[in-house]
Amino acid sequence: MSEQTPIAPPTGDPPPSEPSAPQALATPGGDVVARAGKYYRNTRYILAAALFFWGLYNIRDGFFNWPAQNQHYAQVANARGLDPNAKPHSDADILINQGLGILLPPLGIFLLVWMLRSSRGEIRLSNDVLSVPGHPPVPLIHIESIDKQKWDRKGIAMLSYRLDSGKVGKIKLDDFVYERPPIDRIFERVEQSLQSPRPRKVAAAPSVPRPKMPPPPPRPKL
Fold first, then answer.
1. Assigned CATH for 123-195
2. Mean pLDDT value across the chain
3. What are the extents of the domains in the chain?
4. Which residues of 70-108 are buried (b: 16+ CB within 10 A; e: fewer)?
5. Could you read off the pLDDT of 121-136 as tens digits, one per residue?
């Protein structure tokens, strides 16, 4: 009979497990996305709805209810000999309600459209390229300056850029209109880019004017 190799008894310590795959870490060049701020939009929704429906309420009173009540009072006053000037609503009150009814609903709609436009889309920083609604993609190396006068107090910064095509513009970062944490991270990345050394821009070689050729001699007459 062949001899069998004895099996060692199990020990209390488990066998070493294989090292797990390392988790991906957020890199400084990762994407940063700032979408419209919820508080900013919700408060504007409420304000726009309040203006619109308050205007409808004024339309009902200024053009229908109050004139009808005054007319009813005038009929009762003539029948009972009451003072016709003691009507429940003055002409000025009716005129004010009519004016508010005409102005407030369009104002509410305008506020809603303006709010949606000012917070449209998203602000994205990807691979050191800043994408903002209403502007072309702007690499951070093309941002020339940053205005921080309102940043500490209001969270507003203005970025001035100049592209290779010659296009210039200003980008507004507002951590109230858009989500604050991503906007703050984008602001920090822009500051770091401005403080880091940048490659010099090579000036274009001056164009050499073409020499003027002398005019051809006149053709001899035959």
1. 2.30.29
2. 84
3. 32-118, 123-195
4. beebeeeeeeeeeeeeebebeeeebeebbebbeebbebb
5. 999 999 999 999 999 9
